[in-house]
Each structure stands twice: as structure tokens, then as C-alpha cells.
Amino acid sequence: VMGALESRGVLRRMSDMLEMLMKRMDILARLENSTDFHKGDEARFPLDRFQPAAGLMERIQAIAQNVSDIAIKVDQILRNSLLNGKVLEGRRDQCEVPRDPKYPDCAGKVEWMRARWTSDPCYAFFGVDGTECSFLIYLSEVEWFCPPLPWRNRTAPLPSPPPLPRGQAAFQSELSQLLELIGTGKESLSFMKKRIRHLAQQWLRGARRLEQKLKGQQRDQKHILIHIGFLTEESGDVFSPRVLKGGPLGEMVQWADILAALFLLGHSLRVTVSLKELQSHLGVPPGRGNCPLTSPLPFDLIYTDYHGLQQMKQHMGLSFKKYRCRVRVIDTFGTEPAYNHEEYATLRGYRTNWGYWNLQPTQFMTMFPHTPDNSFMGFVSEELNKTERQLIKSNKVSSMAVVYGKEASIWKVGGKEKFLAILNKYMEIHGTVYYETQRPPEVPAFVKNHGLLPQHEFQQLLRKAKLFIGFGFPYEGPAPLEAIANGCVFLQARFNPPHSSLNHEFFRGKPTSREVSSQHPYAEDFIGKPHVWTVDYNNSEEFEAAIKTIMRTQVDPYLPYEYTCEGMLERIHAYIQHQDFCTTSSPPLPPKAKSPAMQSSPSPLALSPNSTHLVWSRSAGRAPRAWPPVASLQAWVSEPQHSCTQTCRQHGLVCEPTFFSFLNKKEVFLQLGITCDSTEHEMNHLYPAVAENVHECYLQKEPLLFSCAGYNTKYRRLCPCRDYRKGQVALCRDCL
After folding, report:
1. Are 272 and 278 in contact (CB under 8 A)?
2. pTM of the full predicted structure?
3. Which of 180, 413, 474, 693 has the most neighbouring CB atoms within 10 Å?
4. pLDDT for 565-586, tens place per residue?
5. pLDDT per residue over 273-287, tens digit each?
6. CA torsion, points 502, 504, 505, 506, in degrees to nearest 10?
């Protein structure tokens, strides 16, 4: 990595240090032998306790010899390279920056290298030594800003051999190898392994059912890196210390389930929770991260989080841009297109600490299906068999309530006294708040607090309780689904006005404008009564009426299919098989051509029989190879105050951002009976849309800004919707 003199100096210093270490060890050994410290006392101080010292001396001597040998070899290599260098010296000093219009950035990059090549040791690692020729060699052979040098001894590239046939993915029948892959050393890893073991039989049953459903469908085995960035020391690893204290575990629940699903689907996995391991697996050259990787990326897919994404960008140099299409970002609350597009976010005030990555929005994967612009990853809840379901129903205590939340802070926010007094009048209230023995938590005296419970004991508590009640926080965690799966009714507060980044500290800075109408919008929108009640806690009459009704209502344990092991396996299988962000359907356009989002061609859509919306036309010829299949597409026009997410949901559908390109044509407005006195192409996450009062139509100029989210009272938006499988909102009816 360093120059000749530095290399020799470092090796000499290492050799001197090892020699000094051996001398000190020798002195210690002589001191030890001169005392009677362990004589006649072998019972308490066995002699073999002191044997490692001798072994350590031998190892140090061996290392010292190796360093000495290396120093000699480096000296020989440097002498040879200097002799060889003299042959090329004249030529190397005569290098000129080529003027090639195909490489317009070459001169500027060379200028930068002249001034900054010593700023990162990685340049020296690739052979840069301060000469013009070394700059040009690097910029043409390691990076790609300059043309190849004609005098370089480069053999003509052989035609690439055909790619070797990929191994086929086979469903796994046990999980012990995965537990080894996850590793040890952190409480968070222990938590995830414990969860995988606990759900092992459920996972294996789900895998067998999906295998039967796919009927021997061929699946390529993918090489997948899982880098859990928030568990690295460099990102602070705030979660591991909180595992034992009731801190938020939702992210670790989800990561454990992702690991189990990817492994059982038969893919080849590598798991990292340290930056050093990440660098090693990626092939990061030594230095500060400004150079590309030393070899092609050996992974087809990388699953990480925002912390991991930042680490990859810092250490992959230009390779990050090249390979980012292979990344999948686990993102609890979602990232909307307006926040993801760097230029647009900066210009329009959507820039946050977490957005602006310029990824395809569906590369972000959420915990719940709240952001159709992203992919829904999810997690699993425990399934019950028929016997367990009957037992739970017969053992329910109709006057028992359990409070959602393990941290004492949720009790400290004011305004709970009134509704807690009403609840206490009808039900016995139980809590699971973490506390240390000498400091009991500040909860009302009438609450029976069990402290932090192991998962199986918490499940037993839920199986007895009638009600699981939320206090408004935490948002969108897994616990309400677990409670509903164990036969509880979930009661939560309605937020009026809805919480968002505009009015609530928790969401401020998150890359979403989503308005959250309750503590758990998925439970409210996709499950609903009788399992989920969303009421105004400030309205005592409404709250008390809900408690009375819940106590006399019989409910069965319920778990949506998408949160079963089979449902999650099915969803991830479909994503791996069909989502490809690295290949484009058409070659790059010339610089002056229109953006691909703006190109106009005859619309393949036709008016539906009842003339309310557009569907894919049967006479449109051969349907394009798209996923989801275009047969599931329906195009609707929103009301001015509605986003496309809301519009599609009103029609029993979900917004599908992949289909925006089919709607982004002037002809589609005409087919829907919309008059366009003018049509403009602009960058705006609300387009395509129409300003009806002035008959102005707008088409999207930037495909990364196609967005299901967002509304403005000025516009009615064109919305691409699709059907979905019952219990599996992420997949259309024909998506498998």
C-alpha cells in the first residue's frame, strides 16, 4: 500500500518490536524460574498453567522470522521493480492526457488525482505512484474515466465464456446450519437465534407447503449477503444492550424471520454484523473507501438497512453505484419517492437524514404494507393448531386486559388517567414493564405488572387475556398481531389529527409524509372489527361503550396469511424470482431524446365496460413481460384530496407503481374523457395528473418519481391499481 521506503521502514519497525517483546518475555521467564512461587504447590497452581508462555515465545519467534523473511523478499521485489521501471521510465514520464470525446471526464479526473492521490492509500494499493502514467493506468483500468493506454501490455480480451449453469435452490429441511451462520457475541444475535429455534417447526411446515404449491418450479440459487448495519459497533449497536430491558425488538424479530425465510428457500447466505466482515466479503481495498472493489461483487443480492447502506456507500467507491441495484433495504416505516430522489428532495424540501439514495423505491422493504411504493417484507407471528385455538377460547378471562408496551416511559405521558379509570372499572389490568429491583416502574397501583417476560410466558399471558390495549406508542410493532393471533381484541386510540412528520416528533426526519391515523394502521385497515377497535380515547362514552362490547364479544384467534411462515416464504420467493433492478428493458437513450418516462406511443389500455376506469386491452397485442402481470392493471382517476394509495384502496385494490409507465401518456387522459388544453412534462411526484379547473395535463419526466403517495387539492391524479391475493396484499392474483 505504501511506497518503497515506507514499506521497508514498517517491516523494520515490526521486526524491532518483536525482538524487544522476546527480550521482555525472556526476562519474565528468568524471574519466574528464580522464585519458589509454584514449588510444592502443584495442587493449587498446576504446572500446565504456565506452559502457554513457552508456546507463546515459540509463536513470537516464528512471527519474527516471517517478518524478517518478508522484509528480504520485499527488498528483492523493490530492486527488481526499480530495474524494470527504468526501462519504462522515459515512456512513463511522457504520458499525456488523451483528448477523447468518449471520455469527457478524463482530464478533470487526472487533475484531481494530481492533487489528491495521497488522500487515500487505496490509490497506492492499485499502483498509483504520483506519475502521470500511473494516474492514467488507474483511471482506465481500475476506474473507467479514461481510454486504455495503447502502450500497455494488454492482451486482447478473450470472448467471455458462457456463464456456468447456476445451482438450483432446494428447500431446506432443518435450520441448524443457519444458527451457525448467524454467529455469537451479541445479545441481539442470541435473541434472533432463540426466536428461530422457537418457530422452527412452524417454518419447516410452511416451507413444505410452499414447496408443494410450487410443484417443482425451477429456482436459481442466489448468493446473498445479509448485513445488519444497526448491529455494528460503528453504528452504535443501541439494540443489543436493550434486548434484556424491554427495548423495541420489532427490527430484530423481522431480521430473524428474513434470515429464516432466505435460508429455507435454499439460497446461499453470508451474515455480517461488523464493518470489518462487510469489507472482507465485498472485497474492499485497504484505505478510506474511495476506490472500487478489488474484484466483481460475489453476491446476487444484499439485504441490509439504512446503516448498512451508508457503510457500503462509504467503502465501495464507484462500485456502490454499479452494484446498488442488487441491494434490498429493510426499512420499517418506508421511503417515499419524493424523499428518495436526491435532486428533487433537495429542491422541494423533502431532504432528510435517511432519504436521497436514488434507488428504485421498491428496493425498500417495509414491516407492514403501508407504502405501496416500497415492497412489503413483513415478519411472522406464531400460528395455532385447532386444539390450541379451542383451548384458548375456553380459557379466556373476559375481564383481563394487557397493556401494549414494555418501557415505563409509555405510562409517563399525561392524559391516561380518565380512560384507565374506566378500564379499571371493568377489567383487571396487567403490564409487562421492565424494571430493576431497586427501582419499581411508575405505573398505577391497580396495575399488576409482571415485569419483562420471556416470549413464551408473554404468549401465555395473551392467551388468557381478553383485551390487548395500546397507549398510542410504540407505532406499528409486531405485538398487536401476536395478541390477535392469540385470541385477544386489540383496542387502540384514533389520532385526530393523524400523526405525521409535520406534527409529530417521532416521524420528523423520516423519509415519508404518511399520515398515521392510529397506533397500528395495518390492524385498523386490513383486519378491523371484531378483532381491532379504533376509538377516540378522549371521548369517555365511546371508550366505555367499546369496552362493554368487547367484553361480551366472542372472537377467534386470527392471523392474516401474509404473516404466517408460508405467506412470508411465498412473498420473498416471488420477489427473488421476479424483481430485477439491474437490467433495463431498453437501451439508454441519446442525450437529446426524451426521458423514457415521457415517450408516447398508442395506449394499450381500454375503457372498462362500465366506463369508470381503464383496463389492459385484450386487443393490445402481446402483453409486455412485466411483473406484476399487466392483466391485473386498472387505471383510476383520484379525487383532488386523495393519494393514489387511498384511491386504489377505495376500489378494493392496491396501488402498483410499476404500472405508472403505462399511464404516463397523453392518450390516457383522452381515454378517460379528460380535456387537456396543454400537456407539460415535469419532475413532480404527483404526476401524471390533471389540473381540471384549467384543463392542464402533466406527465412525469423522471421515472424514479412515480409515486403512489402524495396529493394536492389542485390535482386529480392518474392512479395505477391492481388486484391482490386474499391475505397476501403484496402479490396480485396471477403473481405466482
Report:
1. yes
2. 0.84
3. 474
4. 999 999 999 999 999 999 864 3
5. 999 999 999 999 999
6. -110
